[in-house]
Write a structure and sequence with these properties.
- The protein has two domains: about 45 residues; about 40 residues, no CATH class.
- It is built from two helices and six strands; from the N terminus they run E-E-E-E-E-H-H-E.
- A hairpin with an 8-residue loop joins strand 1 and strand 2.
- The protein is elongated and about 45 Å long.
C-alpha cells in the first residue's frame, strides 16, 4: 500500500511530494527509494503528524502490568494514535 505525502528532507529548501511505502516503511522521492534511517528529515512546517503509540508488541508486553492499573484498567484493544497539529 502506498500513500502520497509531503516531506522536507534536511538541507532542502522546498517541501517535496513523496510516496510512502507501508510494506517496508520506505519513501520514494522523485523515483529514488529511501528508507527511514538513510536520510535526516526536518519536522513538518504545516500539517498534522500522526504517530502510533505502543505499536511494538515488545513495548506493550513490557508495560502489560502497568496497563492493568488505573486509569487504564486493561491493555489497549485497538491502535493508539498520537496526533499533533502544526500551525
Amino acid at each position: 500500500m502506498r500513500y502520497k505525502a509531503k516531506a522536507k528532507l534536511s538541507r532542502k529548501l522546498q517541501v517535496e511530494e513523496v510516496e510512502v511505502r507501508v510494506e517496508d516503511t520506505g519513501v520514494e522521492v522523485k523515483e529514488e527509494k529511501l528508507y527511514r534511517a538513510e536520510r535526516k528529515w526536518d519536522a513538518p512546517v504545516i500539517g498534522t503528524i500522526y504517530r502510533t503509540v505502543l505499536n511494538y508488541k515488545g513495548t506493550l508486553e513490557a508495560m502489560k502490568d502497568e496497563l492493568t492499573k488505573d486509569p487504564y484498567k486493561a491493555p489497549p484493544k485497538a491502535p493508539i494514535l498520537y496526533i499533533n497539529k502544526t500551525r
